[in-house]
Amino acid sequence: MRSFLPLLLLLPVLAGSLFVSFGTDWAPADAWVVREDNQDSAGARRAAGDAQAQASLLASGAKQLKEGTAALQEGAQPLGQGVQELAQGSAQLADGLVELQAGTGRLGEGATRVADGVGQAVDQIIGVNAVRGQIIEAIDSTLGDLRGKQSPEANQLRGRLQELKAQAETFELDQQLAGQLVELKNGSRDIANQLHVPGYAYHDGIYQATKGAQELRAGLQELEAGVAEAQKGVAELDGGAGRISQMAQDNSRNVGNIQRVLPTAAPGEPVFDPAVTVLLSGLLLLGGAVLARLGRWTGLAGVIGLGAAGAGVGYLLTDIINPLSVAACVAGAGAGWAAVRVLAAGWGRKAAVISSGVLGVAQTGLSAWLWSEAAAGEVVHRAVMAVANLFPMNWTVSAITTSGNGGHAPLIWVSLGVLAAILLAGLCAPAAREKQPSLAIEP
C-alpha cells in the first residue's frame, strides 16, 4: 500500500490546478495586479514592462556607444600627430624640389653654354680635315710664287711654308676620333636639352615632381586641418555619448519608478519581481528536500527556520516582507520537505532522491519560463498553466509573488492551501521504507 502514498502529493496539486485553470479566470499576472484594476493596470503594467525592456536595451547601447567614442577619441590622437608629421615632411619635400628645380634651371643654362662651345669646337676640328687640301694647295701656290727669289725674307718665308706644308700633309683627323667628337657634341647638347628645354623627360619630370609635391603639401595641410576638426568633433561626440548614456540610465531608472507606482501593489511598495521569486522558490524547495533526512519534528522545525531565512533573503533583495510572504516561504520549504518525505515513504529513499531531482529540474524550468513570459506581458495558455500547477514550485512562486505584491487576494490563499495540504501529507507520512540509520526518518 505504501507504493500509493505519492498520490497524497498529487491530490492537492491536481485539485488546485483544475480549480485555478478551469474554474477561474485567474492568470499569473494576478500575482501582482489587483483584480479591481486588472484591465487598466495590466495594460499599463505591460506597457511599462515593454518600456523597461527597451530602456534597458537603450542604456546598454548607450554604454557601448560611450565606450566606442572613448576608444575613437583615443585613436584619433595618434592619427592627428601622424598627419601633422606627414604634412611637415611633405612641406620639406616640396621646398627641396623647388630648390632642385631652380638648381636644374641654372645647371641647364650652363650646360647649354657648354654644349654651344663644344659644338663650335667640334665643328672647327672636323672642318680642318675638310680644308687640309686647300691649305696644302695654297701653300704650294705661294711656294711657286717665291721660286727664283733669293732674298733673306723670301728664303725665311719659304722655309716656314715648307714646314707648314709638312705639318698639313701629316695632319689627318681619324674617322673614329671624328665620330667620338660628334658623339661628344651630341651628348653635351642632349644633356643641355634635358636640363633646360621643356618637353624633355628630365626637365618635365622635375617640374611634375615639384608640382606634385606642392599639391601634396596643400592636400596634407587641408587634411591636417580636417583631422583637427575631426578630433574636436570626436571629443564633442564622446561628450554627447556620455550625456546620452547618463540620460539612458536616468530613463531606465525613471521607467522603473513608473512601474513601482502603478497599481500593481500597495502604493509606495516595490514590485516583487517574479524572476527573484522563481530563484527563491527553487532554493526553498531544494533546502526543504535536504531537510527530509531529518526526523518529522526536527525537519519541521528546520522548515520553519528555512522559510524565515528565505523571507529574510527576499527582504534583502526587494525590501518586501509581511506575514503572508513569510508564511509563503515557510509553506514552500515545507512542500519540498514533505514531497521527498512522502516519496521516500512510498518508494524508498533512492527512488525519492532520483524522482525528486528529475521533477525538480522539470518544474524549475517550466516555472521560470511561465513567469518570465507573464512578467513580459505575454499571454500564457491555460493548458500550460494547468501543467505547471501540478508542481509544488509553481504554487510556491505564486504564493510568494502574490503576497509580496499585494496581488489578487484569493490567489494567495489557494496557493497557501495547496502547499499546506502537501505539508500535511508529509507530516502524516510514515518513516522511509529502507532502514539506513544515517538517513533514517523518525516517525
TrEMBL record:
<feature type="transmembrane region" description="Helical">
    <location>
        <begin position="351"/>
        <end position="371"/>
    </location>
</feature>
<feature type="transmembrane region" description="Helical">
    <location>
        <begin position="324"/>
        <end position="344"/>
    </location>
</feature>
<keyword id="KW-0812">Transmembrane</keyword>
<keyword id="KW-0732">Signal</keyword>
<protein>
    <recommendedName>
        <fullName>X-X-X-Leu-X-X-Gly heptad repeat-containing protein</fullName>
    </recommendedName>
</protein>
<keyword id="KW-1133">Transmembrane helix</keyword>
<feature type="transmembrane region" description="Helical">
    <location>
        <begin position="271"/>
        <end position="292"/>
    </location>
</feature>
<keyword id="KW-0472">Membrane</keyword>
<feature type="transmembrane region" description="Helical">
    <location>
        <begin position="299"/>
        <end position="318"/>
    </location>
</feature>
<feature type="signal peptide">
    <location>
        <begin position="1"/>
        <end position="22"/>
    </location>
</feature>
<feature type="transmembrane region" description="Helical">
    <location>
        <begin position="411"/>
        <end position="432"/>
    </location>
</feature>
